[in-house]
Write a structure and sequence with these properties.
single chain; about 110 residues; mainly alpha; Pemi-like Protein 1, Chain: D; 2 domains; 4 helices; 2 strands; elongated
Length: about 110
């Protein structure tokens, strides 16, 4: 995908089709690396609309997260090092409840059968 400086420029005029579809000219799709089915965010700005390819939003979000983590002094290695313990906590929280509920149901059933 092409990287461009954030400037506002007039590109072209297009029309809304019968099914509410807009056509983005081929050259602009090519410049932005947009294929068929590429998702867009539609933003309203007063009486206008801004179409923003979702990939750009995702890239921007990644940059923000990276900056925040770097600013907090975290590195990819330090974050990855926490994963085994985090997995253990999630596993214990999820499957311990599941296991204890199975035991409770089994105890209730055994008690009823007596």
């Amino acid at each position: 995908m092409a990287s461009r400086q954030a400037t506002l420029e007039y590109l072209t005029t297009t029309k809304i089709g019968e099914k509410g579809q807009l056509t983005v000219p081929k050259q602009f799709r090519k410049d932005l690396g947009l294929g068929t089915g590429a998702p867009f965010a539609v933003l309203r700005l007063g009486d206008g609309l801004i179409l923003l390819p979702e990939q750009q939003r995702f890239d921007h979000l990644c940059e923000q997260v990276s900056s925040a983590l770097t600013g907090a002094g975290l590195t990819p290695e330090s974050i990855l090092a926490t994963l085994p313990e985090a997995r253990k906590r999630v596993f214990a929280r999820h499957y311990k409840k599941s296991e204890s509920s199975k035991i409770s149901r089994r105890q209730s059933r055994d008690h009823r059968e007596r």
